[in-house]
Amino acid sequence: MIRVKICCISSVWEAQTAIDAGAAALGLVGPMPSGPGIISDELIRDIAQKIPPGVASFLLTSNRTAMEVVAHHRRTETSTIQLVDRLHMGTFAEIRAQLPGIKLVQVVHVNGLESLEEAMQAAEFADALLLDSGNPNLPVKELGGTGRVHNWSISRKIREAVSVPVFLAGGLRPDNVRAAIEAVEPFGLDLCSGVRTDGKLDPWKLEQFFLAINA
User: Fold this and answer.
1) What are the E-state strand segments in 97-141?
2) Does the structure show a pLDDT above 80 at 215?
3) Which of 10-24, 53-67, 143-157 has the lowest mean pLDDT?
4) With DSSP H G I counted as helix, E B as strand and the rest as coil, what are the percentages for the chain, rounded to 5?
5) What 8-state DSSP symbol labels residue 1?
6) What residue spans define the domains of the chain?
7) What distance in Å separates the CA atoms of residue 193 and residue 205, rounded to the nearest whole number?
8) How far, in whole angstroms, is CA 98 from its chain's centroid?
9) Residue 105's beta-bridge partner residues?
């Protein structure tokens, strides 16, 4: 059964609404250079503490050194860390040594075939990959929440080339999610804007999304 992660959760109500709809994981967004859903570390921690067992809590962090990632997690205490950018100092091994038992998910922004090599390298160290549609090479980095669909054929190549679970993100909505599943066959799906209205989580859109998955 495909797992669904609802991202950009901004309150305990949104967390419970997503869980009630069928979410297996929730994304909690820390400081970012751009994009939706950013909340304080204090609120991330409060929401994470209220998430029931069996539902994963993802801290989205843009920190790029191992020790900054560790410090960010210690302020929030989620079950999983989602690195939305590449580390430029330190290693995954250093993070694991400081945070045993915490899952590490590396985001790969799919912008071309070069993303395949990046994903294969990341899969050697991460517990899972999340394929998104940002652009970390812009002057103001896009590290998620763009609402854009990327090239699913490249995502399929990545999914077939790596041995770790792959989440698919980027512009997923009720009207395209079946096509996305058939094209990529991912382990999980990740979405933010596709189930929101005026920035707020929309229970009707959530219901339509899960109906489309199971159609």
Assistant:
1) 103-109, 128-132
2) no
3) 143-157
4) 35, 20, 40
5) -
6) 3-213
7) 10
8) 22
9) 82, 128
Q: Give the Cβ contact number of residue 84 at 10 Å.
A: 27
- For residue 146, pLDDT over 80 is answered with no
* Whole-angstrom distance, CA of residue 1 vs CA of residue 194: 20
> d(Cα 141, Cα 91) in Å, to the nearest integer?
22
Tokens (6 digits) for 117: 């090599």
- Cβ-contact 155, 184 below 8 angstroms: yes
Compute and round to an integer the Cα radius of gyration of the chain.
16
Measured between alpha carbons, how far is 8 from 52 in angstroms, rounded to an integer?
18
Average pLDDT over residues 129-144: 84
Check: CB of residue 129 under 8 Å from CB of residue 106: yes
User: pTM (2 decimals)?
Assistant: 0.94
Which residue carries 């989440």 as its tokens? 167
End-to-end distance of the chain based on CA atoms, in angstroms? 13
**Both tokens assigned to 5:** 């992660």
For residue 38, what are its two tokens?
């950013």
Burial of 191 (0-12, 13-18, 19+ CB in 10 A): buried
Q: If 0-12 CB within 10 Å is exposed, 13-18 middle and 19+ buried, where does residue 33 land?
A: middle
Distance CA 188, CA 169 (A): 9
Of the candidates 158, 141, 138, 146, the residue with the CA atom closest to the CA atom of residue 190: 146
CATH no. for 3-213: 3.20.20.70
Quick one: which of 127, 99, 114 has its CA closest to 25? 127
